[in-house]
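Why run this: before we spend reagent on co-expression, it is cheaper to look at a predicted model of the complex and decide which construct boundaries make sense. The entries below are exactly what would go into the expression plan.
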Amino acid sequence: MAIRERLSGNEAVAYAIKQINPDVMPAFPITPSTEIPQYVANYIANGEIDTEFIHVESEHSAMSATLGASAAGARALTATSSCGMALMWEELYVAASDRLPIVLALVNRALTGPININADHSDSMGARDSGWIQIYAESNQEVYDNFLQAFPIAEHKDVMLPVMICQDGFITSHGVENILLVEDDKVKEFVGEYEPEHYLLHPTEKMAVGPYAVSNYYMETKRAQRQAMLNAKQVILDMAAKFEQMTGRKYGFFEEYRMEDAEYAIVIIGSAAGTCKAAIEEIRATTGKKVGLLKIRVFRPFPEEEIAQALSHVKAVAIMDRSEMFAGSCGPLGAEVRAALFQAKSQAEVVNYFYGLGGRDITVQDFMQVYDNLENIANTHVVTGMYDYIGLRER
Amino acid sequence: MIQDRINEKSPWQDITEGNKIFEAATSKEFCTGEWRTFTPVFHEEKCKQCLLCVPVCPDSSIPVKDCKRGEFDYDHCKGCGICAKVCPFDAITMREGK
Amino acid sequence: MSKTVEIRWHGRGGQGAKTAALLLADVAFKTGKYVQGFPEYGPERMGAPITAYNRISDQPLTVHSNIYEPDYVVVVDETLLESIDVTNGLKADGAIIINSQRPKEELLPLLNGYQGGVYVLDAREISIRALGKNFPNSPMLAATVAVSGVMGREDFLGEMRQSFQHKFAKKPEVIDGNMMALELAFNQVGC
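The model came back. Tokens follow.
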């Protein structure tokens, strides 16, 4: 029987870490992820786990130490947010290129400029090209479940890539919600022991990690790295299926909510998806309009064809971005979903909205407005405000 | 030799995971002596065996045995000339070419 | 309780309004509800006005926005009545619960003509009487449960006693005082 609990998102991740009992956790505090290493440090101090906690002087060092530990053969992880992750930038790429199965508990927060501590995807979206697998969560339950699947995905021999488990700062990280926890012994069995094939502390095998690659080798190395990301798709689905067997909770690349007959769809990432679901229920109950939601769980690897397929029958789509990318046109999710739809020769009308930047709240009413907009666009085939904002004050 | 397995003709499928190298001291197989345009010449009769030349060599190309240096390792010496510069006894001179 | 009950707490940083919201989530959770308890997200400073929220329901909760049209508003610090529009969005068939020593008539003019239920509780006096110290949280929590009816009196008191027994395992002498504070508050709002 699952354990019925109520935890904040940070508590849920820390609890998952406790259940996994990884080998090494270097970490440096930054709001809103600070509680995660705090809770883990408590578990260690209380003798509940024997993870080696490394106190470091910066996030650059936190990720460097995590890399070193992982290359040495340890199951290693860290946690951060926003500018903390920005300071890890160099090591993010190194972790992926060196094929180290590190897990990062990322609590999404706006990157500074202006300084802000609230939920926004600019940190992880900025790192979308770093070669990390990225898995996002709507709720505390999902971030916990995703975290339990992270090491098995990362350490799979066909993958061997670092994994970022993302949740929205404060909204889920500091909000207490009901959650179903998996029993310790089941977690141990699901996650298993890490038995790396190659590692620096191997008693007999000689090994060098991270050698210089001249242009004669760089491109082939990157192509091989891409293959790992492509392989990750099947492994992510396999782990989700195994997880479903254990818990009954179903996961995939994305969740399709009331999409079976949907004419108007929203594509979104993270905690706001739950608010969108409430809007869908309200609209369907009061007007019968066929509205649905595609909530992206796995952004890297990007399930391009699957997304296009899931949206193939809709008349209009609103892709909603919680971060700017200053292309002057679209946001990161907007760009990639539009490309997927174009490739699939989709006839759907598409708009791309920015919402929730720097923690700006988004409500059920906001989502109802978005569905109204979509209906208008589908009826008139006139798209005004293709790249627009939800909740922006305007003159 | 590592070059037999991975070299500049290797397709991407043959590249090791993360470019990892499963051998030690593979630099020995890489003959940087090929690059040399000037060559140090060792004049043993002038050498006092002070060994100042040994630690300054960037390519570890001056072998030492029983506290005495021997002939250059021309497979790896790039001919930079630092040894000749530090030698107080003119026991190393530079000659043009390999 | 068929629909979701939404509660907004107003307090000042350090007074424990957020803790009270989390406590309410805790106790409602223990009676089998789906709960949310969360602060208004931002840097918290001692003395600054803060807002915290609860959603309590028999159904799973998915909405992750703040609460703009609460069923109940709880004001832990009455000085906020002067500076914040605490009844903003408060449903007409809902209620506001205020911690104050002043009579209700004196507070009404500060509520922007709010027509719903107004409950005034002297949480300070109750806390000092029951515990000898000013911890307004427990009485305000009890009053909120009483007024909102998110759970029955006996369920609430039973769960709270268990929780105090756990929390104060090393100083059981304070359990009765805390329980008394809850009961006094329950009685005073008269629900």
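The domain at 3-192+214-247 of chain A is CATH 3.40.50.970 (Rossmann fold). The mean pLDDT of chain A is 97. Bring this page to Monday's planning discussion.
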